[in-house]
Design a protein that fits this description.
736 residues, mainly alpha, two-stranded antiparallel sheet, 22 helices, globular, membrane, Choline transporter-like protein, transmembrane, transmembrane helix, antiport
């Protein structure tokens, strides 16, 4: 028993659209959809603007950019007494090892802005002895004392009581604009300036391990990761400082190679455009060339890795494992290890096997996907403006990201300076209470808790606004996700409308309406802002929950409750699947919205049932198309990456002298490869949207029409023939 042409038996999934002889593609006479959600969306945007304005009025980014001394003054801020003092110096960093640091999140010692960190060991007492013979010792030491203090003969007890000078200084290097001891590990022994011990200024000899513990504690407070206290090694701070040097070198590489990176990205854009133009005329041949080209390239990679592995095998030191040498900034070190090439060879072999198996078992689906991509290239060739629409999406996303980041910074820096009592005495009842630095010296606290200080703690306040800063940050994040997903939805709906106009033109390109992309953009904004916002909100809520789950997972990493970790893992997995399903459904719902102009729920339902009625076609075709487009992205980014590799490693003789001097050649190389992939991704995303739209239109075409003169198919005969053959083969396979 056969299915009647252009219709479905009663009881099948959903009901196909009834035949409308006047239907010629996207409906022009349509009304506004999901108006309530549109109103809410507009109100939320206005509220977001108000939130940004309030944050701008109360916030001060300087609190994030500059470190703050014990008196609430910024270090390094221009047009202030500390303009030339950009580094924060701790009077007694040993106090940072006090357990109160973990409670108060502030080191209980005087903190002063200085122009440079100390480069030698010295104590105030030793300075007084040497001052009688050499006045220069005081000139050096006093730059780490309070401004205006100039009495080297003052007794040490009074100096420490009045907090005029530190009792000692140690050789330090700046890290996060703060002076930390200059740790160096020599033959497994931790040293500072080649010393393993030092004088603490109170007549005691201390080990540099005490400095390490104190520096770790304060660094932990700065990073906000208190749990890292139990995970450090003796070279923890040294590794962080080395990482800072690596970061500086990376920045230098970007500064010297940005022009060539830009040229590489322009080349990738031109290659992507040429590739798409070639698809317009030779889509089938080109995609098969891409497939076999990738197979050949991966095969060559396997052979090269095996050759390198064989040549290194047996050489001295080549059998050292990657875990033994740890992280190295010079990647060439890893290339001298046989294990590196073995990992490369295994990875490429797995990739090669996956590609070949996909081609063998899904060869018919690959043919259909290529046919759809071929038709998609014709559609893009008729509406070339669609290739440049991703630029609009990029600009809107950049605006959203910039506004969110600025608002987050201003919210984080809102509040007035709060001062608290810091004491090294465990039984001081005034510890962590707010205080006034101007009147603190006259209070009873200094008598009851000797050595206590009134130091800057953080920025905050007691107003309603300050109490709900965290809630406002969450609102900032949720609205940001909503705006980003709305921007993406707007782009998908706009492109879908343009490509649907192409498909439903009986005589292509004569019947394609003028300016289909602009018309589709106008319809999406004018009639369907609410529907797009509705779909974006659903997706944003799921993403917001996923972010909260990731945050909880990060916080509970040290927990030993196996059930909690298992439950959290299950929730993360479920919401990951839910997010991807919603993305898939939203994408198809936006296509139906662009064609029929119905609300979001109705469009999502129609798209779902339409896909279910064509499940044999949908099952594999979507992923096969993504796979082919991924190979195209891989080919473009890989080709530009190989060219960049030869350039930055000075292997192109003609332009060797133009290559900038680099610390790490992989910095601009990886940037070019990643940027090329993202550029190709932007162009091929248009292709993916085109294929999805054409596929849904094809399914609708089969239900509406039967190929007769009165109800002709709008699809090309070749595409109809391939898809019908596939459907019949699928049915035959299902029956057997």
């Amino acid at each position: 028993m056969t299915r009647p042409k252009g219709g479905y038996y009663k009881g099948e999934l959903g009901e196909p659209h009834k035949f409308d002889p006047t239907f010629r593609g996207p409906v022009h006479k349509r009304g506004c959809t999901d108006v309530l959600c549109c109103v809410i969306f507009v109100i939320v945007i206005l509220g977001y603007i108000v939130l940004g304005t309030v944050a701008w009025m109360h916030g001060d980014p300087r609190k994030v950019v500059y470190p703050t001394d014990s008196y609430g003054q910024f270090c390094g801020q221009q047009e202030t007494p500390n303009a030339n003092k950009a580094i924060l110096f701790y009077f007694n960093i040993l106090q940072c090892a006090n357990p109160s640091v973990l409670i108060n999140l502030q080191c209980p010692t005087t903190q002063l802005c200085v122009s440079k960190c100390p480069d030698r060991f010295a104590t105030y007492i030793d300075m007084q002895y040497s001052y009688r013979r050499n006045k220069g010792s005081w000139e050096y030491y006093k730059q780490f004392c309070k401004p205006g203090f100039n009495n080297p003969d003052k007794p040490i007890s009074q100096v420490l009581r009045d907090e005029d000078c530190p009792s000692m200084i140690v050789p330090s290097r700046p890290f996060l604009q703060r002076c930390f001891p200059d740790f160096i590990t020599r033959n497994g022994t931790l040293t500072v300036a080649n010393q393993t011990s030092f004088k603490d200024g109170h007549g005691k000899i201390r080990s540099v391990v005490d400095l390490r513990d104190a520096a770790k504690q304060e660094r932990t407070v700065l990073s906000g990761k208190v749990t890292a206290m139990q995970q450090g090694t003796e070279s923890g701070i040294t590794s962080l400082l080395d990482a800072k040097e690596v970061g500086t070198k990376i920045f230098e590489d970007y500064a010297s190679s940005w022009f060539w990176i830009l040229i590489g990205l322009v080349i990738s854009m031109l290659v992507s455009l040429v590739f798409i133009l070639l698809l317009r005329f030779t889509a089938g041949v080109l995609f098969w060339l891409v497939i076999f080209g990738v197979i050949a390239a991966v095969g060559y990679g396997i052979w090269h890795c095996y050759w390198e592995y064989s040549s290194l095998k047996g050489k001295p030191d080549s059998d050292v494992t990657i875990s033994d040498i740890g992280f190295q900034t010079d990647f060439r070190v890893y290339l001298q290890l046989s294990q590196t090439w073995l990992i490369f060879m295994t990875s490429l072999a797995v990739i090669e096997a996956i590609i070949i198996l996909v081609l063998i078992f899904l060869r018919n689906r690959v043919r259909i996907a290529i046919a759809l991509l071929k038709e998609g290239s014709k559609a893009i060739g008729c509406i070339m403006s669609t290739l440049f629409y991703p630029i609009i999406t990029f600009l809107l996303l950049a605006l959203c990201i910039a506004y969110w980041a600025v608002t987050a910074v201003f919210l984080a820096s809102s509040g007035e300076a709060v001062y608290k009592v810091m004491s090294t005495l465990p039984d001081c009842k005034y510890t962590n209470l707010t205080c006034d630095p101007e009147t603190f010296s006259q209070s009873n606290v200094t008598k009851l808790c000797p050595g206590s200080q009134c130091t800057f703690a953080f920025y905050g306040g007691e107003s309603l606004y300050h109490r709900y800063i965290f809630v406002l940050q969450l609102c900032n994040l949720l609205v940001f996700l909503w705006l980003v997903n709305f921007t993406i939805a707007l782009g998908q709906c706009t492109l879908a409308g343009a490509f649907a106009a192409y498909y439903w033109a009986l005589r292509k390109p004569a019947d394609i309406p003028p300016c289909p992309l602009a018309s589709s953009f106008g319809r999406a904004l004018r009639y369907h802002t609410g529907s797009l916002a509705f779909g974006a909100l659903i997706l944003s809520i799921v993403q917001f929950i996923r972010i909260i789950l990731e945050y909880l997972d990060h916080k509970l990493k040290g927990a030993h409750n196996a059930f909690t970790r298992f439950l959290l893992c299950c929730l993360k997995c479920c919401f990951w699947c839910l997010e991807h399903f919603i993305k898939f459904m939203n994408r198809n719902a936006y296509i139906m919205i662009s064609i029929y102009g119905k609300n979001f729920c109705t469009s999502a339902r129609d798209a779902f049932f339409l896909l279910m009625r064509n499940v044999m076609r949908v099952a594999v075709l979507d992923k096969v198309t993504d796979f082919l487009l991924f190979l195209g992205k891989l080919l473009i980014s890989g080709s530009v990456g190989v060219l960049a590799f030869f350039f930055f490693t000075r292997q192109i003789p003609v332009i060797q002298e133009e290559v900038p001097s680099l610390n790490y050649y992989w910095v601009p190389l990886l940037t070019v490869i990643f940027g090329s992939y993202m550029i190709a991704h932007g162009f091929f995303n248009v292709y993916a949207m085109c294929v999805d739209t054409l596929f849904l239109c094809f399914c609708e075409d089969l239900e509406r029409n039967d190929g007769s003169p009165s109800k002709p198919y709008y699809m090309p005969p070749g595409l109809h023939r391939i898809l019908n053959k596939s459907e019949q083969a699928g049915k035959k396979y299902a029956v057997s």
